[in-house]
Design a protein that fits this description.
Length: 439
């Protein structure tokens, strides 16, 4: 709690300011410098994300399954997709709530967003036993039982409850992601402030089937201002995403312009460098994805990169076009690599905006890499925090009388597992009553 209102306003102002301000994921504005740029918050002792060492987690039988409602969403509910320059974010409009799951209050779902990397083996913020996933989904919920707005809740203990889902790559597209993936290219330029509406679905659709198996710890926002207000849930079971869908995400975020001033010291052939990039993003065996990727680079650099790409990648473009046109029916509509038909041209890339000496200094691999931006924060130290687990390991003895603390209230109050479970049940009853009234 704040000692007085002025400090509360000050911190809220910081929260609002840092929403759009001077930070990023690269170089001097990147995560390594957040603690210096935002020393009040990002240098705290309970920061997120973390590596979850599963052997060190503590089983807490009070951590039950979540209640996610409304399911299906109430009529008039909407999802709006936009690119805020740091991530793809989907804002909810309508009544979406999460409760139980060891949460002592009812939380309103405000938005969900993603963190990803451009290489095949990193991208998620949380890691399990040291292993990253290629992409992570965060569903951000705020404590609407105790607070009046997400801005107010975001700076209070237990003010936010974020659900984190890790992904693994699958052969098949994830149909739940498809409506979002289909509009990603339309919101590619954050400066255009485009919001694309997609059908609202229950948040349950984004949770793994085993939604009662998760890890729980107290942490922070993973972006500035890094407020330590988050009850974190990271699910044990991973969701799936196809390489094609992941690749669409990887094309969305544009890097900052100063990257063009970097000069490569590496001395290898262009075609080999491009192949390395294909390997980095996991499409080295997929000619169709390579051709699509190359075409996107050409589109956004307004140069003729394809002239230096490996012949085999270039020669498959027509095949890919034909395949795409035959493919349209199964996906409703294909994502188009441009937004021209909406009346918005893709903004020229830093390369075309800064022609001349810098361009000639860059290898084509660097030009390709310019299109690839990681938007994840590296794992932060646990600093003595305990990570709880909602499920027992095989053959693990279950002691239901074990007193377990899993929520820090004002850093002091100790909640007994069984008692908290009763409280959660009470809130669930309230939620059901509220739901009935609203229906
Ligand atoms: Zn996030």
């Amino acid at each position: 709690m704040f000692p007085n209102a002025s400090i509360g306003i000050l911190i809220l102002a910081l929260f609002v300011t840092t929403e759009s301000a001077d930070w990023g994921y690269e170089n001097e504005k990147g995560p390594d410098h957040w603690a210096d740029l935002f020393p009040e918050a990002c240098a705290g002792a309970k920061q997120s994300p973390i590596n979850i060492n599963t052997e060190d987690t503590v089983y807490n039988p009070a951590l039950k399954d979540f209640s996610v409602f409304f399911d299906p969403p109430l009529p008039g509910s909407k999802f709006y997709v936009h690119n805020n320059g740091h991530t793809i974010q989907v804002n909810t409009e309508g009544k979406f709530f999460v409760s139980n799951g060891g949460l002592t209050d009812i939380y309103s779902t405000a938005q969900f967003h993603f963190h990803w990397g451009h290489k095949a083996h990193h991208g998620s913020e949380h890691t399990l036993d040291g292993a990253p996933s290629p992409i992570e989904l965060h569903i951000v919920n705020w404590n609407s039982q105790l607070y009046n707005s997400i801005g107010e809740a975001a700076v209070e203990p237990n003010g936010l409850a974020v659900l984190g889902m890790l992904f693994e790559i699958s052969e098949e597209d994830n149909p739940v992601l498809e409506p979002l993936v289909n509009v990603l290219m339309h919101v590619r330029d954050p400066d255009m402030k485009i919001k694309a509406e997609i059908p609202a679905v229950s948040m349950r659709a984004f949770l793994p089937r085993a939604a009662d198996r998760y890890y729980r710890y107290n942490g922070s926002l993973t972006t500035p201002g890094c407020f330590e207000s988050v009850v974190w849930t990271v699910f044990h079971e991973k969701l799936t995403i196809s390489r094609r869908q992941l690749h669409v995400f990887r094309q969305v975020l544009k890097p900052s312009g100063h990257h063009v001033h970097k000069r490569s010291t590496r001395k290898h052939s262009r075609s080999r460098a491009v192949r390395e990039v294909f390997e980095e993003i996991g499409i080295e065996d997929d000619k169709r994805e390579q051709a699509r990727f190359r075409r996107q680079i050409v589109k956004n650099t307004e140069t003729h990169v394809h002239e230096s790409l490996p012949e085999d990648a270039t020669s498959h473009e027509e095949t890919m076009e034909h395949h795409e046109s035959n493919h349209t029916g199964s996906h409703g509509h294909e994502v188009k690599p441009h937004t021209g038909h909406h009346g918005h041209n893709v903004k020229p890339s830093p390369i075309s905006a800064h022609p001349g000496a810098h361009e000639s200094n860059m290898t084509h691999a660097e030009q390709v890499r310019m299109m690839l931006v990681n938007n994840y924060r590296p794992v932060q130290p646990l600093n003595g925090r305990v990570v709880y687990r909602s499920f027992p390991f095989f053959n693990e003895p279950i002691n239901i009388d074990t007193e377990v603390v899993y929520i820090d209230k004002d850093n002091s109050e100790l909640a007994r597992g069984a008692a908290t479970s009763l409280v959660s049940s009470a809130y669930m009853c309230i939620a059901i009553i509220v739901a009935a009234v609203l229906c």
